[in-house]
Design goal:
The complex is a heterodimer of chains A (about 400) and B (about 300). Helices cover about 75% and strands about 5% of the residues of chain A. Chain A has 17 helices and four strands. Chain B is mainly alpha-helical and about 300 residues long. Chain B is about 75% helix and about 5% strand. Chain B is built from 13 helices and four strands. Chain B has a two-stranded antiparallel sheet. In chain B, α1 crosses α10 and α2 (about 40-60) packs across α9. The radius of gyration of chain B is 19 Å and the shape is globular. Chain B starts with a helix and ends with a helix. Classes of the chains: A mainly alpha (about 400), B mainly alpha (about 300). Chains A and B meet through α1, α8, α14 and α16 of A and α4, α5, α10 and α12 of B.
């Protein structure tokens, strides 16, 4: 058995080397072997460690089915703490953060929160309903451009444009959703990818409306309105949220709103029906779940959240152009959902911060960020497809399963 | 230019572009036929082939080898690019797809997507973000037929592409391994029961498909004169559209689909604003998937897979 495992280890390392050495070892003119070797060394260490653990335990038939993985135990531990403490604590930290941080950190915080919003929206489509959407960033673009155009041409305020953006996003979601209702899995992925690119190309080519690749600029920032009782009588004062902390609180408010919305949806009849569609569409259809309607709803609601994030993004930068909405952005959002745990709200929040904030802290690693995203996605799918913090619904079924098995062995 | 010459010229351009799309589409269709997975990394394997081509060709040109032994040079360039990418294809399959062969399709698809992102950014880091110029080895010599100009490069590329496709067709239909591949595509469990080595068959598919893609990559580099780390993306979508149009899993379908997509693109560019040509391809892709997911030459079995 040792020999067999060793042979497996060597083959794995050999194939990893084939991929890693050319990708990291060659600069266009020079040869930098050490970087590739270091990366390979990390993988080798993990694989060897894994092998040693396996040999010590003498597990040859795979992991012990009765053992609960650490992530689920962590989740259980987390669930024992009263909800009010964890949520209240997190909110307090999020609220105090701008008072302690500098502008750069607040900016990173805002970016993280935007990605949390996007991740939660995509989670409805991918996580709850099980439809793989590779063009999700298109809805973000719809939100951004709707606000930009409405503000620039009609002078509509952020709050007035937001509902219009949401409705337009939902309509786009349905337009994408409708032809894909019959499709599953792979075809759906490629069609949504195509739709995402179509929207980006239209924004890029429709010069008269969207100013093409130059983008739109000069949009007003979101504003707050408060009454004034000055000497000349009652009136409303407009206060534009220009400073970063103000914008931070706005997106924090929006994200909290979205989290509540997604949680309510998740625990509702609709949420359960979505999970039913994800787990077995045919069975769901047969038991009377209106699958067509639910899929469209998932697309529409996912698009609505992205549209909100997009409108905020355009308002914050006061600038938007089609290159903000590349396919890679869709991949980043998808990576957040996958890493966090498909269907898990806390997981997505953690993953958004890990994937967006950590690369910002290590600036010199910026170039390696997407490389790492790719590697993380593949690795996660192989070793932990359920994500960092698995969704509680999955956890419940998992623990339930273990109890049943224990009961059996007792009886 | 006369009308007939114009039509002929566009037809040649269409065949040229179409045969390149067909070569890439073959990689998709073969992999999908066998393991029912969209190999998202295929576009990056295609780009990797183009990069190997430019590295080898530049080295050979610096040594003055190109002028003295032209045919041998081409043989070495295409051979090395295809061989390297074949090995890379097998490595990708082993690392990213094999462990997930029995898990959900969403997991396998995400793993493929991760591999694609990894390879594309790996190439960006190793080869730079800017265009890498390809040595111009064909010169400007051209043949005139009825007023249409065909460059030597175009003739060479079209002939080579067709030779590769014929070779593939012969391999799949005339050899034992080809028979094993067809059997595995039809029914994997049954093939295993009959003693076909499934792992080996899949490995061979992951050698041939990417190798054809690599050849297409070198062709694109030779013809357009440059390669970039992210060029695989757009070629991937178009080739995938071609594979779908022809019927996924069907090898003649991929060839036909490639030619059709190439023709549509050439015609569009000839008469309509070229900025919108990619939108057209995506629209065709979506329309075909909506109306006839089995494609032109696909079987009902491929429809059931949708």
């Amino acid at each position: 058995m040792v020999q067999q495992e060793l042979r497996k280890l060597v083959t794995n390392l050999f194939f990893l080397a084939i991929i890693l050495i050319p990708m990291l070892g060659f600069r266009s003119t020079t040869f930098e072997f050490d970087r590739a070797l270091k990366t390979l060394g990390v993988f080798a260490a993990i694989l060897v460690f894994n092998l040693v653990v396996k040999l010590i335990r003498g597990e040859s038939a795979g992991p012990d089915p009765h053992k609960v993985p650490w992530s689920e135990r962590a989740r259980e531990r987390l669930d024992q703490v009263p909800k009010i403490f964890t949520i209240g604590g997190l909110l307090a930290v999020a609220a105090i953060f701008p008072l302690l941080a500098n502008n750069y950190m607040i900016d990173v915080g805002i970016t993280c929160l935007i990605y949390v919003a996007l991740g939660l929206g995509l989670n409805i489509v991918v996580g709850l309903c099980g439809l793989l959407d590779l063009g999700y960033i298109a809805f973000y673009a719809v939100g951004a451009y709707t606000y930009s155009l409405l503000n620039l041409t009609f002078g509509l305020s952020f709050w007035a444009a937001l509902p219009i953006g949401i409705v337009l996003g939902m309509i786009c979601g349905c337009i994408i959703g409708y032809p894909t209702l019959k499709m599953r899995g792979d075809y759906l992925a490629i069609v949504t990818l195509g739709f995402g690119e179509i929207i980006r190309l239209v924004l890029n080519n429709w010069d008269s409306l969207t100013a093409g690749p130059n983008g739109l600029f000069g949009m007003k920032r979101p504003a707050l309105y408060y009454p004034s009782f000055a000497e000349d009588g009652f009136g409303w004062v407009t206060y534009y949220l220009k400073s970063l902390p103000a914008l931070y609180y706005l997106i924090l408010f929006l994200v909290v709103f979205i989290i509540i919305g997604v949680r309510r949806l998740d625990n509702s009849r609709i949420g359960r029906a979505w999970v039913a569609v994800r787990e077995d569409e045919t069975a769901a259809e047969l038991t009377g779940v209106p699958t067509t309607w639910l899929k469209l709803l998932a697309y529409a609601l996912g698009a609505a959240f992205a549209s909100v994030a997009g409108a905020f993004f355009a308002a914050k930068l006061s600038y938007t152009n089609p290159n903000f909405f590349l396919f890679m952005e869709s991949c980043i959002v998808l990576c957040i959902v996958v890493l966090g745990g498909v269907g898990s709200i806390p997981g997505i929040i953690v993953a958004a911060f890990v994937l967006i904030a950590v690369p910002e802290v290590f600036r010199e690693l910026e170039n390696y960020r997407m490389l790492a995203f790719g590697a993380i996605m593949t690795t996660m799918m192989i070793i932990k497809p359920e994500g960092l913090i698995p969704a509680s619904r999955r956890l419940r079924s998992a623990t339930h399963h273990t109890h049943e098995e224990l009961d059996d062995s007792d009886g | 230019m006369e009308l007939s010459a114009f039509i002929l010229q566009q037809a040649i351009n269409a065949i040229f572009l179409g045969s390149i799309y067909a070569l890439i589409a073959l990689g998709y269709t073969m992999v999908y036929g066998i393991i029912e997975l969209i190999n998202f990394a295929h576009g990056e394997l295609f780009t990797a082939g183009a990069f190997i081509g430019v590295i080898v060709l530049t080295a050979l040109q610096a040594a003055g080898f190109v002028e003295s032994h032209f045919v041998l040079t081409m043989f070495i360039v295409f051979g090395l690019a295809m061989a390297y990418v074949a090995v890379l294809g097998v490595a990708v399959e082993h690392v990213a797809y094999r462990p997930l062969r029995n898990s959900s399709r969403l997991a396998a698809l995400l793993s493929a997507l991760g591999m694609s992102i990894f390879l594309s950014n790996g190439m960006m880091l190793s080869q730079g973000v800017s265009d890498r110029p390809y040595p111009q080895v064909f010169g400007l010599d051209a043949i005139e037929i009825m007023g249409a100009r065909i460059t030597n490069g175009q003739i060479f590329i079209i002939l080579l592409a067709f030779a590769l496709m014929v070779a593939l067709q012969l391999f799949v239909h005339r050899t034992r391994l080809g028979k094993a591949m067809r059997a595995t595509a039809q029914n994997r469990t049954m093939s295993r029961l009959l003693g076909i080595d499934i792992d080996q068959t899949i490995r061979i598919t992951f050698m041939i498909g990417p190798a054809l893609g690599a050849a297409a990559g070198v062709m694109v580099g030779l013809y357009y004169g440059a390669v970039r780390f992210d060029m695989g993306f757009i070629f991937m979508i178009k080739a995938f559209a071609a594979a779908i149009l022809g019927g996924i899993g069907s090898i003649p379908g991929a060839m036909l689909g490639g030619l059709i997509i190439g023709s549509i693109e050439v015609l569009w560019t000839a008469f309509l604003p070229s900025a919108w040509k990619d939108v057209t391809t995506f629209t065709i892709l979506i329309t075909v998937l909506y109306l006839k997911p089995s494609g032109l030459l696909g079987t009902s079995a491929s429809e059931a897979r949708v």
